[in-house]
Design a protein that fits this description.
The protein is an alpha+beta fold. The chain has 20 helices and 11 strands. α7 crosses α14.
Length: 530
Amino acid sequence: MNNPAAKPRIRVKALSRPIAAEVARPKTSAAYMRGETGPTFSGWRPALRESRDDVRSAWRMAAARAVDLIQNSGFISGIVDQSAANVVGTGLRLNLTPDADALGMTKGEAQGWARRVESRFALWARTPQEVDAESRRSFGAMQVAAYKHWMALGEAVATVPWLRRPGRMFGTKIRLIPAHQITQDSDDIKRLTHGVYLDTLGAPVAYALKQKSIGGTETTVRVDARDDVGRPVIIHTFDGPVGAVRGITPFVPVLQTVKQFGQLGDATLVNAIIHAVFAATIEGDFPTTEILRALQSPQEQAMADQSPVDAWFEGRSGWYQNTHVDLGVAGKFVHLYPGQKLNFHGAQTPSPDYEKFAGFLLREIARCAGMTFESATGDYRQATYSSIRMATADIYPLSLQRRAQIIAPFCQSGFEAWLEEDIRAGNTPFPGGIDGFLENRTAACLAEWRGTGKPQADDKKTAEAHRIWKEMGVITDEMICGDLGLDVEDVYDVRVRERQMRQERGLPDFQPRGSNAPAEPTQQDDSNDG
C-alpha cells in the first residue's frame, strides 16, 4: 500500500558510514579556582574551621617541636636571641602620658605627676627582689624571657601575686609561668575554650591552670583574670588570628623547613666524609689482588697472610722489587707498573646548588622569624648599604608590631597593678585617692612603651638626614628622639643638668657645629644689658 504521508525508508549498508559522537565542549567560566579539576587543586582540600579549633589541635605538638628546635639548633637559638634583642633590647621603658582633661589636671600638673610616677616605678622595675616573685630578674629581663617564651610557645603567661618581703618597698610581684600550665580542656556549657573561660562577648574572665601539689599530684584550678576591682591577676599575651583565644608559636609555618635544612646539612656532611674516605683509585689491567697488596704496607701484608714465614718473605720480596705504593707518608709514592694509573678524587661536596638551596631555606626561616636574612645568618657578603637599609625598613615595622602587641600589654598589666598598690598606700598622690584612680584607671595609666631605636646602617648618614628634615621644618626633636629610641623629655633634662654642671665647673657651653654665635655672652654684652 502506498501511503504518501508515511516516512520514507532508506536502506543504508551496515558500517558503511561512521557516526561521530558529539564532543562536550567546556563551558566558559570566570569563577575563582578554574583549575579545580587539575592536578594542583584535586588533592588540596583543607577543612575550614574556627581558628581556635586549629590552634587547639596543633598547639601541643607545635610547641614541643619549637622548643626542641630552640634547645638543639644553634641556628634557631641564635634567631630567638637576636629577635629578642631587636624587639625588646634590655627592656621597654615607660613613657606615661595621662589624659589631663579626664583627670581634671592641667597639662603641667599631668606631666609633673607622670614624671613622679615614672621615677617611683623605676624603683620597682629595676630591682629583681621587688618585681620578680622569684627574685631573679629585673622587669626588663622578665620582658626578654616572656618574649622568648612567646617565640617558643606562642604566648606569654604570668601571675601577679602580692607579697611584701622584709626590707622591701612594694608587695606587687610578677611570676612567669609556662604557657602549657593552661589546660587544653574545652567545655561549651561552661564557656571553656582551650583552657580559657570566656564571657558572652568572648573576653577572658578566668583560666584553668594545672598546679602540682607537694606530693606531685596534678590538679586543675580556676583562676580569675582580674579581681573584683579590676586588678590583673593573670597576664596572658599572644598574637593570634581572629577568633583564637590562645596563641601558637610563630615558627609553626617553618617547622618542616627547619628540619629540611638540618637534613640537608647532615646529608652533605655524610657525602663529604664518603668522598674523603675513597680518595684514590688505580686504573689498570693488573689483577685486583696484586694492586690491593701494593697499596698495603709490609706490616698490613704480613697480617693478611696465614703463614708468618711466607708473609715475611713476600714482604721482603716486595720491598726489594720496589713495588710498594704508600699514600700515608706525605703523599709520596714510587713508579707504578706499566699500564697503571693512579687517580685522586677530591670531595665534590657541597654541590654547586647547595648554597643556593640552603640560602632559600634560610631566607624562608628568617622571614618567618621577623628578621632579615643578613641579621639571622650573619652573612653580609652579598649585602650593600642600600639593601641593608631597605631590608631594615621592611622588617623594623614588624619589630614595632610585636613590641606593641606582645611585650607592651605584658608591661602595661604589671605597671597598672603596681600603680594601684602605690596609690592605695598613699605614696603617689592622686585626685580622689584610690577611689578616684579606680574610676579613672584608663586615663591615669595611658602610656607608651619605648624600646631601642631603628637600626641604622650608617649613623652619619642618618644624622645628616635628620638635620636636613629638621631644617625643612617637617621633623621635631621628639620625632628624632623617637627614631633613636629616646625620650625627648629625658634628653632635655639631661642637657639642662649637664649645662648646670659645666657652668659650675667653668666650662663653655656646647656650641653647635657651623654656628657663628659665641658660646658664651661677652663682657661687653653684659655691660650693655646693665
